[in-house]
Amino acid sequence: MHKILKKLFVSLVSICFICLSLSFFTLNVFAADGNSGKGISKGLTAFIMISIFLVTAVIAGLISFKCKVKKIHNKEDSSDK
User: Fold this and answer.
1) Torsion angle, alpha carbons of 64, 53, 25, 7, to 10
2) pLDDT for res 10
3) What is the pLDDT of residue 66?
4) Which residues of the chain have a pLDDT value below 50?
5) H helices within the chain, ranges in order?
């Protein structure tokens, strides 16, 4: 029964994803009226976005590493007994 529910859930999520993806093709996107004198430059915006991505990736890597190390230590402690 669990396998059937899992397959049904995966199928439902896939169908929803396909429908949403196809609906995005019909959207029209217009560029905003830009003023070159105001706002943040494109280079600074790209730098900020890349730095946020890198910081997030490093934090996720550290958390993943700590979880793996903790899991390995717990496995070693349980096998020593």
Assistant:
1) 0
2) 87
3) 92
4) none
5) 2-24, 42-80
Supply 60's token pair: 């996720």
Determine the Cα–Cα distance for residues 6 and 22; give it in Å rounded to an integer.
Answer: 24
Residues 6+ apart with CB under 8 A from 48: 40
pLDDT of residue 6: 85
First to last CA, the chain: 37
| Tokens, residue 15 | 């169908």
Q: Which tokens hold the place of 31?
A: 């560029």
- Pull the structure tokens for residue 52: 């946020």
Q: Give the predicted TM-score (pTM) of the model.
A: 0.47
* Distant-in-sequence, close-in-space partners of 44: CB < 8 Å, separation ≥ 6: none
* In the chain, domain spans: 41-81
Angle of CA points 32, 38, 43, to nearest 5°: 85
